[in-house]
Amino acid sequence: QFGWRTKYVWYFVITMFFGGGVIPTYIIVKETMLLNTIWALIIPGALNVWSAVLMLNFFRGIPKEMEEAALIDGAGHWSILWKIYLPVSLPSIATIGLFTIVGHWNSWFDGIIYMNSPEKYPLQSYLYTLVKSINFKMITAQDISTLQNLSEKTLRTAQIFLGALPIMLVYPFLQKYFVKGITIGSVKE
Asked: So where does this one cross the membrane (predicted)?
């Protein structure tokens, strides 16, 4: 219904092809005084054009008859949004949410760039620094006898497993939405 819709969508899609890069993003984060805060990790990745394109295509695939039936029943635009479109779109929202969470969870580079002190690193950045170089200064005298029996690969594997554990715990609860969200744009008969 919006006349300039296609041009408007392409305006945002082009930003996916030609991103600003790490240095301009760092400068903006620095100038907005977000360095060394949790917001430096959240705000730059909060608006994802790819997720918006997926949701746009999902909403284009919803039959217009659902909206027309609700309008005939006397529902307003907000009521249609909350009672029809939102429940129908839960699988795609959960899928995009899972993609976003896993993408940010695995992003170790952002924490190293935006956090000045290792105490504020997110888990993946901290694990990355541990895997790259084990800091034996943190080990106490009591732990030395235990560590002599462990190989370096065993320690790194345990660290990586602990880093993946939260996502492995969340995934089974989102799996039913994830499967629906992946197949939502497929051909239906």
From this structure: 9-29, 35-59, 80-105, 157-174
Q: How many CA atoms lie within 13 A of 76 on its CB side?
A: 2
Indicate which CATH number applies to the domain containing 104.
1.10.3720.10
Task: Report residue 33 CA to chain centroid gap.
Answer: 23
Strands of the chain, DSSP E: none
Task: Provide the residue range defining the domain that includes 61.
Answer: 5-115+168-183
Q: Is residue 161 part of a domain?
A: no
Q: Report the alpha-carbon angle 52-57-62, nearest 5.
A: 125
Dist CA 97 CA 162 (whole Å)? 22
Q: In the structure encoding, which two tokens stand for residue 6, read together?
A: 């296609």
The predicted-structure confidence for 26-66, as pLDDT tens digits, reads as follows 999 999 999 999 999 888 888 788 888 888 888 888 888 88
Contact between 118 and 126 (Cβ < 8 Å) = yes
Specify the number of domains making up the chain: 1
Closest of 46, 50, 40, 43 to residue 17, by C-alpha: 50
pLDDT in tens, 157-175: 887 888 888 888 887 877 7
Query: Cα-flanking dihedrals φ and ψ of residue 145, to 5°?
Result: -65, -35
